[in-house]
Amino acid sequence: MVSGSDPDIISDFLAPPNSTAPDGNFFTYTGLRGIFSADYPPNFKVTKASMAEFPALNGQSVSFATLEYPAGTLNPPHIHPRASELLVVVDGSIEVGFVDTTGKLFTQTLQLGDIFVFPKGLLHYQYNPSSDQPAMAVSAFGSANAGTISIPSTVFATGIDDDVLAKGFKTDVATIEKIKAGLGAKAKN
User: Fold this and answer.
1) Whole-angstrom distance, CA of residue 81 vs CA of residue 3
2) Looking at residue 119, what is its pLDDT?
3) What is the per-residue pLDDT for 18?
4) Distance CA 44, CA 89 (A)
5) Could you tell me if 66 and 103 are in contact, meaning their C-beta atoms sit under 8 angstroms apart?
6) Phi/psi at 13 (nearest 5 deg)?
7) Could you tell me the CA-to-CA distances from 181 to 20, 158, 172, 178 in Å, in that order?
8) DSSP collapsed to 3 states, the chain
9) Backbone φ, ψ for residue 46 (5° rounding)
10) Can you tell me the mean pLDDT for 149-160?
11) Cβ–Cβ under 8 Å, residues 146 and 85
């Protein structure tokens, strides 16, 4: 069996190599300042606080993100291969869903204060169907480096041959090229 997760550490925390003793600044991330009082962006936006942005998370098996959904926007179907996601709605309302390994779709409409869990490694999405109201959520992950695999860009923008995609989706190359054009990807034959 193969599995992936954050390693257990044998100290309280992992200080950066070649550093002096860390102080409180090392354990403080300021990248979210102002996000809760700013205007919503024109497109869906994720602001992460993972190990890459906040090195103190290394070895702690946690990370965080804010998700801003202007009216009518989508966080496209994606997977976090190394972590479950716990999402709480802090403004507005969103529709969420995930698909389990048997192909069953689980959906829910979440309101302010609702919490939803996306199990580790399962395909999921979030959508703000409102035509005029934005929404915001915050997510906690059970890994300092949850990883994100965006299904649309992974399938259609990484250079997989158009013929392979057409056969896999039981369609024609012209349809694949149209999908790629909509994503800003280049067709590859």
Assistant:
1) 10
2) 97
3) 76
4) 15
5) no
6) -160, 170
7) 50, 13, 15, 5
8) CCCCCCCCCCCCCCCCCCCCCCCHHHHCCCCCCCCCCCCCCCCCEEEEECCCCCHHHCCCCCEEEEEEECCCCEEEEEECCCCCEEEEEEECCEEEEEECCCCCEEEEEECCCCEEEECCCCEEEEECCCCCCCEEEEEEECCCCCCCEEHHHHHHCCCCCHHHHHHHCCCCHHHHHHHHHHHCCCCCC
9) -110, 135
10) 91
11) yes
All residues at 6 or more sequence positions from 51 whose CB lies less than 8 Å from its CB, including other chains:
57, 58, 63, 144, 145
Structure tokens at 49: 């606080």
**Pair of tokens at residue 69:** 């959904």
Residue 68 contacts residue 44 (beta carbons within 8 Å): yes
pLDDT tens, position by position, 92-115: 999 999 999 999 999 999 999 999
Mean pLDDT across the chain, nearest whole number? 91
Tokens 């801003």 map to which residue?
68
Give pLDDT tens digits for 23-71: 898 999 999 998 888 899 999 999 999 999 999 998 899 999 999 999 9
The pTM of this model reads 0.86
Nearest Cα to 88, choosing from 64, 122, 62, 61? 64
